[in-house]
Design goal:
With 281 residues, the protein is an alpha+beta fold. The protein is built from eight helices and nine strands. The chain has a nine-stranded mixed beta sheet with strand order 3-2-1-4-5-9-8-7-6, sandwiched between helices. Helix 6 links the parallel strand 4 and strand 5. The radius of gyration is 20 Å and the shape is globular. The structure holds two DNA strands.
Length: 281
DNA sequence: GCGACAG
DNA sequence: ATCTTGTCGC
């Protein structure tokens, strides 16, 4: 497993490059990082982290006639991470690779700033049998499409603390992702275990063909997941993580949907993660 | 050009 | 995700 990328350190390096008599913008910084979608995350980071030394070099909008400094020397790290995701996406196996399912696990994380409190709950016959937890500090903010680089280390650590499971439900998309490698897929590939992506909001694609109770989500002409209607009116988005088919993924999630809006394993992991965050030992 | 954008 | 007041719906 590669060393987690330190987004905040990279941002600091960019700020160091801004000349004393010039200013830049969060937008220019995001482009230098390799993806403009990180603009918001950078604005937040500059406010929350220790950037007092450089914050005066950043302005939201440019004054009259001024140009933002943009001549950064950079290897565009987010671009590299995106390429990593594209490579990982090629390794996804979206067919069922097991015979029976007895143990179903769910993972979720709760945060205190950049510290993730993660829990993995294993259910057998609808009963919680085991729970693994992990506390992992991250140096990477939430950026749409790059969630795995913030959360996967914690999720993987918690999942490795339980004795075993047949399939793991992950709170986040699987292949229903801009580059086909969301958190659930990232985790499944690293653990080499079956995973299903479960999300409360859509990241890419749109509901197309009706399949009775649910519909297929299509992105760039490819089926990448399923949209299941929920009681409240919103929908639940299910996609293949790794080593499982979409049909089986939907079947499993629906069988665990009871109430609560989330499948039981994830709902329980969510509650447990919150508990760990509020009652750290 | 404007908006969308997992947790 | 997290914080947090008022508010919409069952």
């Amino acid at each position: 497993m590669a060393t987690p990328f330190d987004f905040y350190a990279a941002l600091n390096d960019l700020l160091d490059q801004v000349p004393e008599d010039q200013v830049t913008t969060p937008r220019q910084l995001s482009l230098a990082m390799g993806d403009p979608i990180a603009t918001q995350a950078i604005e937040d980071a500059l406010r929350r982290e220790d950037y007092e030394e450089h914050i005066y070099k950043v302005v939201q909008s440019l004054g009259s006639g001024k140009a933002a400094f943009s001549d950064f020397v950079t290897d565009e790290p987010l671009n590299k991470l995106a390429e990593t995701q594209r490579r990982m996406a090629e390794k996804v196996i979206s067919i069922d690779t097991f015979y029976g399912i007895t143990k179903i696990a769910g993972v979720d994380a709760a945060y205190y700033d950049d510290r993730a409190y993660c829990a993995c709950v294993v259910l057998e016959r609808d009963r919680a049998m085991e729970c693994g937890t992990a506390v992992v500090d991250s140096s990477f903010p939430y950026i749409p499409g790059y969630l795995a680089f913030r959360e996967a280390p914690a999720v993987i650590s918690a999942a490795r603390k339980v004795s075993g499971f047949d399939v793991l439900l992950v709170n986040g998309h699987g292949v229903a992702h801009p580059r086909g490698c969301g958190l659930a897929t990232h985790v499944g590939l690293e653990l080499d275990a079956p995973t299903i992506g479960v999300a409360g909001r859509r990241l890419v694609g749109e509901g197309k063909e009706d399949r009775g109770d649910w519909r297929l989500i299509v992105h760039r002409g490819r089926v990448v997941g399923a949209e299941l209607p929920r009681e409240e009116g919103s929908a639940l988005y299910v996609s293949v993580g790794h080593l499982i088919s979409l049909e089986t993924s939907v079947e499993i999630v629906r069988s665990l949907m009871g109430k609560l809006g989330l499948p039981k394993p994830i709902a329980m992991a969510h509650a447990r993660a919150l508990d760990e965050k509020n009652h750290p030992r």
